[in-house]
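Memo to structure team: turn this sequence into structure tokens by end of day. - J.P.
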Amino acid sequence: MLTDLPNMLTLSRIAVIPVIVLLVAIGAPWSALTASLLFGAAGITDYLDGRLARDMMQLSDFGRMLDPIADKLLIGATLMALVGFGHLPGLGIYPAIVIMLREILVSGLREYLAEIRVGLPVTKLAKWKTGVQMVALGLLLAGNEGAKLVWLGWLPMDWIGATLLWTAAVLTLVTGWDYLNAGLRHVTTTKPVA
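Reply from structure team:
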């Protein structure tokens, strides 16, 4: 199970997190570009692990559990690194907060609903949100300085990344509201504690 290719891809997403954070901490153009490329590769594994698990008929409870955890760890650590090392332009901390709060909300909802044996499926809009978020964070990791190393210095990476991060935050609010409404439909009245 642990050595199945889809699960190994998911685990690689977790393993790359400290490397990305270290590269952001270094703060050099080469490290920014490397962090962006590693993050992009991790984002691709997010798509591939589920696809391969279905195609290879290697679906497992372990993989279903680990995949969203790996996503949240990668996104959360990257957002914290970008904020902590001052790489979010302007008011970029606000969409970062919105994204983190939604991730915690959905995790809590899923945990509660799992106890009462109700699933909370991922919606198409949530998948789009994740895609926009991944592109935004990849661009923000590269930044304007990292882009210069690959002759894309004329592109305002910080501005494009920040705009996409705000877009992801709006999608985050919409999907978070959808998940909250879906979850609240299953909330039962509280029972008195004995």
